[in-house]
């Protein structure tokens, strides 16, 4: 059974009705699927949806999810369809943190994604398209690792969109407190290799008690719900979306969207949060000394209500890069009524957010 089939089985066990959600047909051609390997031999995946000759553009997902976040059919129009319908050659990248790949169960770092996965993906797309460069849209850790890749010397990228985060990371005090507790480090010492947002309604008493305890996690009244996967997501990452921006079908299918995160990647992410800027897995400042490598067209997006990654994160990046390389390369937008991932999977993202992404791709 494939890893994707395993996750479908998990969804059925979590909430059987989720497999019967009324989902429409994806408005894109059947994809061409390419498996390829990183420089250290990890199997990765690209899905190509050729809407036309614009691009090519790679869409890179966050931690604990997969490229499904870009092709979700519980919303009226997803980012894949939006770009496909505007004649873009769209490539959905599943890097080693993708919950749909076996690699997500292995220990790996954000450095691995940045320095091993991105170069292999860009090389593969350029090889298959005959083009000399690509554009890349990254969200969350997908944007952080994209920035790390560029700072690490990644070539053949003509423009990027970084959603929510890039060189710097600031969050709410409660999230920094959890990071200071060094929970990923402690769990790794105890032999735990990964955490998961997934939970099973047929799980044992200890898991059910844990899920019940998550109800005590401080969440604003207007953001509370009865979805245990939603609560696990908040415990792991902080508040990732404004509930008002998610339609019911998307909220109901969170168990399909979110899954496991390996401890090594989480440990590096929490270290970056505590330092407030990119560092490698050893804690070394190996990336920021090379800001000149970010002298290319870049757009930064932040949700104005993003409590997971505060908007000042991209503001810090924007100001830093404008000072270092000049204002002509950079744009930044703050989306007043959005949080974090709802900028991609929100029910109105096609009207409010996607045009800003398109603008960068069209004007690079």
Keywords for this entry:
single chain, 364 residues, alpha/beta, Rossmann fold, 8-stranded mixed beta sheet, two-stranded antiparallel ribbon, Cholesterol_Oxidase
CA-based shape: globular
Characterize the biggest β-sheet.
Answer: 8 strands, mixed
Number of separate domains: 1
What would CATH call the homologous superfamily? Alpha/Beta hydrolase fold, catalytic domain
Structural class: alpha/beta
**Unreliably modeled segments:** 1-20, 204-218
Number of strand segments: 10
Roughly what percent helix?
25-40%
Report mean pLDDT, rounded to a whole number: 85
Q: At the third CATH level, what is the topology name?
A: Rossmann fold
CATH architecture: 3-Layer(aba) Sandwich
Distance between the termini: 42 Å
From N to C, what is the helix and strand string? HEEEHEHEHEHHEHHHHEHEHEHHH
Calculate Rg over CA atoms: 19 Å
**Assigned CATH class:** Alpha Beta
For the largest beta sheet, what order do the strands appear in spatially? 1-2-4-3-5-6-9-10
Q: How large a portion of the residues is in β-strands, by DSSP E?
A: 15-25%
Number of helices, counting only DSSP H or I runs of 4 residues or more: 15
Keywords: FAD, Flavoprotein, Oxidoreductase
Cofactor: FAD
GO molecular function, one term: oxidoreductase activity
Family: Belongs to the GMC oxidoreductase family.
Question: What layout of secondary structure does this protein have?
Answer:
Blueprint: H1 3-14, E1 32-37, E2 43-50, E3 54-60, H2 79-84, E4 88-94, H3 110-129, E5 134-139, H4 141-151, E6 157-163, H5 173-180, H6 183-189, E7 194-196, H7 205-213, H8 228-237, H9 248-252, H10 254-257, E8 260-262, H11 263-275, E9 298-303, H12 312-325, E10 330-335, H13 342-345, H14 349-352, H15 354-363
Parallel strand pairs: 3-4, 3-5, 5-6, 6-9, 9-10
Antiparallel strand pairs: 1-2, 2-4, 7-8
Helix pairs in contact: 3-4, 6-11
């Amino acid at each position: 059974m494939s890893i994707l089939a395993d996750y479908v089985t998990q969804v059925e066990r979590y909430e059987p009705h989720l497999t019967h959600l009324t989902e429409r047909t994806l408005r894109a051609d059947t994809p061409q699927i390419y498996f390829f390997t990183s420089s250290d031999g990890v199997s990765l995946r690209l899905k190509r949806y050729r809407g036309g000759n614009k691009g090519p553009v790679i869409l890179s997902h966050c931690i604990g999810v997969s490229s499904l976040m870009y092709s979700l059919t519980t919303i009226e129009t997803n980012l894949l369809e939006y770009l496909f319908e505007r004649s873009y050659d769209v490539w959905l990248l599943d890097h080693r943190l993708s919950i749909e790949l076996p690699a997500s169960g292995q220990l790996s770092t954000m450095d691995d994604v940045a320095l091993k996965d991105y170069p292999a993906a860009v090389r593969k797309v350029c090889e298959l398209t005959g083009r000399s460069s690509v554009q890349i849209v990254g969200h969350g850790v997908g944007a952080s690792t994209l920035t790390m890749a560029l700072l690490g010397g990644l070539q053949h990228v003509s423009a990027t969109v970084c959603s929510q985060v890039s060189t710097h990371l600031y969050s709410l005090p409660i999230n920094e407190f959890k990071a200071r507790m060094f929970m990923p480090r402690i769990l790794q010492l105890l032999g735990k290799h990964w955490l998961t947002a997934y939970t099973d309604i047929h799980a044992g008493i200890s898991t059910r008690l844990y899920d019940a305890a998550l109800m005590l996690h401080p969440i604003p009244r207007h953001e509370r719900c009865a979805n245990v996967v939603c609560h696990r997501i908040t415990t792991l990452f902080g508040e990732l979306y404004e509930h008002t921006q998610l339609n019911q079908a998307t909220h109901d299918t969170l168990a399909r969207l979110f899954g496991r995160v390996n401890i090594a990647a989480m440990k590096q992410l929490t270290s970056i949060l505590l330092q407030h800027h990119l560092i490698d897995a050893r804690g070394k400042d190996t990336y920021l000394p090379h800001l000149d490598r970010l002298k290319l067209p870049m757009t930064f997006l932040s949700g104005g209500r993003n409590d997971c990654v505060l908007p000042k994160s991209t503001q810090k990046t924007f100001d830093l890069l404008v000072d270092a390389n000049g204002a002509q390369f950079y744009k930044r937008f703050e989306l007043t009524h959005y949080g974090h991932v709802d900028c991609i999977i929100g029910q109105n993202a096609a009207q409010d957010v996607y045009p800003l992404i398109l603008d960068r791709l069209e004007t690079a």
